[in-house]
Design brief:
52% helix; globular; 7% strand; two-stranded antiparallel sheet; alpha/beta; 5-stranded mixed sheet
Length: 504
């Protein structure tokens, strides 16, 4: 009887505590003077995210109307909402949750200020230490490697797709995930693999470093939620045992590379130029530089921190790149006129069909229309829903329009990416349309760059054919968006170090 009572009291105690915390946070939010939305569960609650991922069909039935209490705690609500809540409540509003308050900002100047004040709205001193040491591996020297390997992998994938005949392929998203994985393996670890379709990979036994990384990325959620040692237990399902093999193989390979790099440094040898090599050498160089200046050296990255950063680089770089690539392909299929538009540029600058002759330094800077397709895709369909900031232990002030918000400690401040990327105030009446040509500006009068007013309702990408490509293409340049309105790779000194990597 006592046990049953205890079992019954536990959920009641949790609910009571959550209500108490919600009321406490509501009182704090009321001093901000901006609209308040009460959310029963914090959007970053790990258990809540795991349950939604495990049972998506059940959680899709939760109401999503404007006043539903579950609207703003559903996984991915930002993408579905876009700018609608801001249109109803204004440029700043606060979501009150039992854990902490979330302030959402959809005003360009305020968003830019948040990213500029990296010490006021940051992830803490430890994050800054790690960022300083890990940003070094992502430099322009890597871009030619990424370019050449991406071309080789894309050629192999294209030949595979063409081999299916008129029926084509139904595995586009899966195959581009393989392409992204292979490019990462080569650029990051100097491991080159022939491109294989997902079906071919499933039909063989996993045995390589790439296989281990692929399995980890496919099962990242359960890896984050469950203890690693569980996957090595003999009684767990076969799929989980495979995850255990992948974790052990990946870690062993990384540890071997770290040991080899430290040995090379001690013997004065050149580095292997892999991601591990650059991380280890960045730490060593930082320590040497500080020692020579007489200043106190920052705490170096531990082996576990190096492994953690490598995993984050792979996870973040792989999923975001693969999702964006697949979405761009689907969008091009839906708008064949955009295919024609970028084909003009590709055929003009790359008349030779032999991709081995396409040099990164001479070619990439000219492909403005191709880059516009990427920029427009991540504007509308960015895999990242938000890059939130944090006030930590100190209160901060933030000016939004004509009001100064006094933000208490321990508050999340989120420039609302999906709202900023789609608000008609910044992107015009067709802000929800996928229209890459909005990114191209030309100084040639004869060029017809279709603005929103010249598009037809059924064809937002319609434009007048360009009469003379030799005159128009060299004059085209990319639009520079208003500061704070375009933040797919974050902004300021804390922006994504792999931005150029992803674009190439």
């Amino acid at each position: 009887m006592d046990l049953l009572l205890l079992v019954a009291l536990l959920p009641l105690s949790w609910i009571s505590y959550s209500i108490y915390c919600l009321l406490h946070n509501y009182r704090e939010a009321s001093h901000l003077g901006i609209p308040i939305i009460c959310v029963p569960i914090s959007p970053d609650n790990q258990l809540w995210i795991a349950l939604q991922t495990a049972f998506p069909s059940l959680y899709k039935r939760l109401p999503f109307n404007a006043f539903a209490p579950t609207r703003h705690c559903r996984l991915g609500w930002e993408f579905r909402d876009r700018y609608k809540t801001h249109e109803r409540l204004g440029d700043a509003w606060v979501a009150v949750t039992p854990w902490r308050n979330w302030i959402y900002i959809a005003q360009a100047e305020a968003a830019a200020e948040i990213y500029a004040r990296n010490r006021d709205f940051a992830q803490g001193a430890d994050w800054q230490r790690q960022r300083k040491l890990t940003a070094t591996p992502f430099n322009e020297q890597k871009s030619p490697l990424v370019w050449s390997e991406a071309l080789r992998q894309a050629n192999d994938m294209l030949h595979s797709w063409l081999s299916h005949g008129p029926g084509g392929t139904t595995a586009t998203s899966e195959d581009v995930r393989t392409l992204a994985l292979d490019v990462l393996a080569f650029a990051g670890f100097q491991k080159s693999y022939p491109w294989q379709s997902q079906q071919a990979m499933k039909e063989r036994t996993a045995s390589t470093y790439r296989d281990s990384l692929a399995i980890i990325l496919q099962n990242v959620l359960i890896i984050l939620v469950l203890p690693a040692r569980l996957f090595s237990m003999p009684f767990v399902p076969k799929q989980w045992q495979q995850v255990g093999w992948a974790l052990r193989t990946f870690k062993k390979y990384m540890l071997d590379q770290i040991d080899d790099e430290k040995r090379s440094i001690s013997e004065g040898e050149a580095g292997s130029k892999t991601l591990v090599s650059n991380l280890v050498r960045a730490v060593e160089n930082q320590q040497s530089t500080v020692a020579g200046s007489g200043l106190q050296a920052p705490k170096p990255l531990s082996v576990d921190e190096i492994l953690g950063n490598i995993f984050v680089f792979n996870f973040a770089g792989h999923d975001t790149t693969a999702i964006t690539f697949a979405t761009a392909i689907y969008s091009l299929v839906a708008y064949p006129e955009v295919q024609d538009w970028i084909s003009e540029e590709i055929n003009f600058y790359l008349p030779d069909d032999d991709s081995s002759t396409w040099q990164y330094e001479k070619t990439f800077p000219k492909l403005q229309r191709c880059l516009a397709v990427l920029l427009e895709t991540v504007r509308l369909y960015n895999p990242l829903l938000n890059v939130p900031k944090y006030t930590a232990a100190h209160p901060q002030t933030l000016r939004v329009n004509d009001r100064t918000l006094r933000i208490p400690p321990d508050t999340i401040v989120a420039p609302h990416m999906n709202a900023l990327h789609t608000h008609p105030r910044y992107w015009g009446d067709d802000s929800l349309q996928w229209r890459p040509s909005r990114w191209i500006i030309s100084s040639t009068p004869s060029f017809s760059n279709p603005p929103s007013s010249s598009t037809t309702p059924n064809n937002p990408n319609h434009s007048t054919p360009t009469p003379n490509l030799a005159q128009t293409l060299p004059t085209e340049r990319l639009l520079a968006p208003r500061k704070g309105t375009y933040i797919p790779w974050s902004d300021g000194v804390q922006n994504c170090p792999g931005k150029k990597f992803a674009q190439v």
